[in-house]
Amino acid sequence: MAKLIVIQGGREKSLDFIDDFVFVGSADDCAIRVQGPGVGAKHCQILRASGAYRVVDLGFPAGTHVNHEKVTQRDLHNGDSLRVGDTTILFKGGATAEPMAAAAPAVARTPAEAAAQKMAANPPPPRRPSTRAGAQRPEPKEIHVAPQLQKAARERHVMTRQNAKKGGLTGPQAFAVIAGVVLLLVIVGIAVMKSLGNSGFDQQQWELADKLMAQWRRADAIAALKAVPADSPNYRMVQEKLAELEAMSEVAQDMNYQKNGTRAWDSLSQLVMQRLDPNSGMFASKYKNDRPAQARYIVYRCEEFLQKYGKHDRVEGVKQMMAKYKAEAPTTPMSFHEVYVQSDSDRARREFSKAWTALKDWETANAGQSTADVKRLFEDIHNSARDYWKEESDYAKKQIEKNNLGQALSYFERASKRLVAMPDLHGQAKQATDDLVRLAKQMNITLEKADLSE
């Protein structure tokens, strides 16, 4: 079993490679958490397939280095050193066998032994009979054959030739046999060349699939492997890789849904302890005399959870929490102070449309009470949203430069959703999304959205 030895700040810890893949990055759910300038939430991925291991860089500024060389993807071997940010990861994939050294020849201790060894290593060639003039040669012996034996031998030779002529192949038959052999050789040659051609095609598709996976284009990678013909000698191996990618896609989607839902539940629980539970160590005294308003905000956050994660296993707990604090929440309209506090929270979570809409609703319900504070709050929300859009568009442009169009699309669509209540910024995000989809169609690329951890 492979191991990953993580070295951070002079400390080491060993991690057994049990799953088919692990993420390295700054996100909480990464198996190996790494900090540092330019390190991404999901910075790189280490994969296992058919007993081999590979690291794939996911395109963040800090890059991924293997044995002091910056790589986009690289097969891993025993003893390889990975560096991400301020962390070094040693890959241990099992011991490697050293080649056996050839046995050294024995050393001669005396001149006689040395001469014997030399003669044994280079024996003299066999002697040929002498052909020099005057050499005596043995006289050939005269052989006498009885006349009866000579006649019998002639008769046997004649019978053998007649039998061969009767049972042999005629001219047309010999031509047919030769033509059949030639045709068989041609068929075998075509089959061999086709096999070699398919093998090369398989290798090209395999390398293309790896490149597309590194660009978050899982759908295109699957399509590349599906293009391998069924008569390919590597078809079975390709099908196993294809099933692995499809299963990984489904598992990843479910894992991300569960992970994000659990994170939202944890945030909601901490919010309750901070604002409504005086017995918790997280309770802030500034909420002590504002319990009804805080209860109303908790109900608002519970409704938001149910809209986004209605199939999560924490749904029942959220419903019970909402029912409990709904009884404490006031039925009167929200005050401007409540709207202001809720706006701060929504902007911190980058939910700009919700903050904008809540302030608009309050202004409509309280017509004629629009003050300088309300106008200032509108400006603050818009400025925060504009800064956010610039940040998201910069991230997306970097992914476009790396040809990661699916990930860039995810940034644009997320921004468009969060800015829908502000027509000017939403229009820019929508235009960027449409332009990217049009570009992908021109390049014949299937856009596969990436999961962007919140």
Features:
12 helices, alpha+beta, five-stranded mixed sheet, 454 residues, Tumour Suppressor Smad4, six-stranded antiparallel sheet, elongated
Describe the protein in words.
- Among the domains are: 3-92, Tumour Suppressor Smad4, CATH 2.60.200.20; 172-233; 352-454, no CATH class.
- It has 454 residues and is of the alpha+beta class.
- It is built from twelve helices and eleven strands.
- It is elongated, with a radius of gyration of 41 Å.
- Helix 9 (352-365) packs antiparallel against helix 10 and helix 10 packs antiparallel against helix 11 (405-418).
What is the C-alpha radius of gyration, as a whole number of Å? Answer: 41 Å
The biggest sheet, with number of strands, parallel, antiparallel or mixed sense and barrel status, is: 6 strands, antiparallel
Q: So what's the overall shape?
A: elongated
Q: Strand arrangement, largest sheet?
A: 2-1-11-10-7-8
Mean pLDDT: 76
Tally of contiguous helical segments: 12
The count of strands amounts to 11
Derived from helix and strand composition plus strand pairing, the structural class reads alpha+beta
Q: State the order of secondary-structure elements, H for helix, E for strand.
A: EEEEEEEEEEEHHHHHHHHHHHH
Gap from first CA to last CA: 33 Å
- Beta-strand content estimate: 5-15%
Q: Unreliable stretches, pLDDT < 50, 5 or more residues?
A: 94-110, 140-145, 195-201
Percent helix range: 40-55%
